[in-house]
Amino acid sequence: MVGKARSSNFTEAEKIDLLRLVRPHVRVIEEHKHKHLAIVGKNRCWVAEVEYYSALGGERPPRTAQGLHTLYKRLKENAKQELVQQQRAQPEY
């Protein structure tokens, strides 16, 4: 059984670049409607993000829309977890 080839890990610079590129499109990407038009809009947004991301150049390996979307979801989840931990660590007055 042959699986998919695993892409290389994202560097910190790549993660920051992705967040900068996604920022203007957050309203579309984070829309919680599951209607056909919303899904099509999100997919178009991610395809555009791949083009912008690839245009940044450098020694980056090629990335897919699915890979960038997965990274974005992981970064968002990690940020939420950090926020919860910070809130737990602060003393209540």
From TrEMBL:
InterPro entries recorded: FSBP, Myb_DNA-bind_5
Domain Myb/SANT-like DNA-binding as annotated: residue spans: 6-84
Record protein name field: Fibrinogen silencer-binding protein
Highest classification ranks of the organism: Eukaryota, Metazoa, Chordata, Craniata, Vertebrata
